[in-house]
């Protein structure tokens, strides 16, 4: 870090060294709306240097045995664990290549970096310009962990400038990206001339299907969490809740009551379940969906425009909003079709199993779904018919990192995690020897 007034100033990490940049962009603290850090505005020049570093480091790193690489990764994991509190503090401040988004910054970065280098690759990572701090903090641990210079290079900056320079570089053969579908389209376009290998983890419009025999005592708190965890800014969050008509009224009353208890607060508030959204522009985008729903005749049962949010004076400029529940909305509404990526969820009734499967599958996305029922046969039947890369039944976000992770349809291409990451980050070679 270089000191500039009181603002934290990040530097790129290339070939094992922190390198300053010619220009910088401001990064905002979402809980106050104030600039708190400057992030390198890197471009082609920095990508050239990072590619050269990664290329030079590759022969040595890939020649090491898996056991040697594993030792280094375990050392890095231990160091990250020792810095957990510091990293959590930093991430709650800006919360938020391998091209990663802003919503789970360090998790999504390490989720890609670890399997890539474990398999013997060298990497260039570009974290989101909105949440770069914890990636930069991790760079400080790489040398200590024994990661040789050039094996992990981190270049900060915007998507159109440095992201595109990385994606289009002819010597970068493989891209793992998590983010939005329009950006994925651009990455496919830019990488097509080089036939690059791509892994794309994109958005979702995830349904929760709640049958009349569901255990509501478990289903309601879990569905509040699946809708509003991390401000609804997780690609796996629920945003369409289908409830069987016979329990619709009871479910809604209890769900709205539980949503009102989902406390919005500042990062230091230990009772808060939800903080500020990532940016002013994103907050406005999320609010615009609620406005649209209202104009279509939908009802807002709690949250935005209905309840009052009280915040300390210094956080009045922060990007906060209340968790919001929408009902009386048509399946054709953009709120039921598009990824909002905020603390907004729609609740609608259904009558039959066939009908709800068809409606749940009627969007372009196919990432995650939950199914709630005590009938084991039904749970299996429905889970099988859902067009969804991940289905949780009577639970949400139970994660085993070795299981395949990824979506169908517009939710992505490929799977990551365990064996799938290993296959993505390696090439199979067939050698036929005649003797
Ligand atoms: N995992 C997910 O499903 C995520 C979905 N989103 C969705 O995307 C919407 C917009 O969020 P953004 O942060 O703008 O997502 P984004 O897709 O624009 O950004 C994700 C990453 O890609 C980079 N990027 C952007 N344009 C690029 C380009 N042309 N070439 C290479 N890299 C590029 C960004 O700098 C960032 O590191 C959200 O509202 C949400 O709906 C956002 C983040 C994660
Ligand atoms: N990829 C995302 C979340 C992953 C969560 C998990 O692996 O459990 C995302 O929100 O972009």
Automatic annotation (TrEMBL):
Task: Give residue ranges for domain Aldehyde dehydrogenase.
Answer: 24-95, 97-431
User: What residues form the catalytic site here?
Assistant: 201
Q: Where are the transmembrane segments?
A: none
Origin: domain of life:
Eukaryota
Which Gene Ontology terms describe the biological processes this protein takes part in? retinoic acid metabolic process
> One of this protein's Pfam families, by short name?
Aldedh
The UniProt keywords, alphabetically, are:
NAD, Oxidoreductase
Question: Which GO terms of the molecular function aspect are on file?
Answer: retinal dehydrogenase (NAD+) activity
Q: Record's InterPro entries?
A: Ald_DH/histidinol_DH, Ald_DH_C, Ald_DH_CS_CYS, Ald_DH_CS_GLU, Ald_DH_N, Aldehyde_DH_dom
For this chain, the family text in UniProt reads: Belongs to the aldehyde dehydrogenase family.
Q: What is this protein called?
A: 2-aminomuconic semialdehyde dehydrogenase isoform X2
């Amino acid at each position: 870090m270089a000191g500039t007034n009181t603002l934290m100033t990040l530097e790129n990490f290339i070939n094992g060294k922190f390198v300053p940049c010619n220009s910088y962009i401001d990064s905002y603290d979402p809980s106050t709306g104030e600039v708190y850090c400057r992030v390198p505005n890197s471009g082609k020049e920095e990508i050239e240097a990072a590619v050269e570093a990664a290329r030079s480091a590759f022969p040595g790193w890939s020649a090491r045995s898996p056991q040697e690489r594993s030792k280094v990764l375990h050392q890095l994991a231990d160091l990250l664990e020792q810095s957990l509190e510091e990293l959590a503090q930093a991430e709650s401040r800006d919360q938020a290549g391998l091209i990663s988004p802003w919503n789970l910054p360090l998790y999504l970065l390490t989720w890609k970096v670890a399997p890539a280098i474990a398999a013997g690759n060298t990497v260039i990572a570009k974290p989101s310009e909105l949440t770069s701090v914890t990636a930069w903090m991790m760079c400080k641990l790489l040398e200590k962990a024994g990661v040789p210079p050039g094996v992990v290079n981190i270049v900060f900056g915007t998507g159109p400038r440095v992201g595109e320079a990385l994606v289009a570089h002819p010597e970068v053969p493989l891209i793992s990206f998590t983010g939005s579908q329009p950006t994925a389209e651009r990455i496919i376009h830019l990488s097509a001339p080089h036939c690059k290998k791509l892994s794309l983890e994109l958005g979702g419009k995830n349904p929760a299907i709640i049958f009349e025999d569901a255990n509501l005592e478990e289903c309601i708190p879990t569905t509040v969490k699946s809708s509003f965890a991390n401000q609804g800014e997780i690609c796996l969050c629920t945003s369409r809740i289908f409830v069987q008509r016979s329990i619709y009224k009871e479910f809604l009353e209890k769900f709205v009551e539980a949503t009102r208890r989902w406390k919005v607060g500042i990062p230091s508030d230990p009772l808060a379940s939800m903080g500020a959204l990532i940016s002013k522009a994103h907050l406005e985008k999320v609010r615009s969906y609620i406005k649209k729903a209202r104009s279509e005749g939908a009802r807002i049962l709690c949250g935005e425009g209905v309840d009052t949010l009280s915040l300390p004076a210094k956080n009045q400029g922060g990007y906060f909003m209340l968790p919001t529940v929408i009902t009386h909305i048509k399946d054709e509404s953009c709120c039921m079709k598009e990824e909002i990526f905020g603390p907004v969820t729609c609740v609608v009734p259904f009558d039959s199993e066939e009908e709800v499967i068809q409606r749940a599958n009627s969007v372009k996305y196919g990432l995650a779904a939950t199914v709630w029922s005590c009938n084991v046969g039904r749970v299996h039947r429905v889970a099988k018919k859902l067009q969804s890369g991940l289905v949780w039944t009577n639970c949400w976000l139970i994660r085993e990192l070795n299981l395949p992770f990824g979506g169908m349809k517009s939710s992505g291409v490929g799977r990551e995690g365990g064996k799938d990451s290993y296959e993505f980050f390696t090439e199979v070679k067939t050698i036929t020897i005649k003797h």
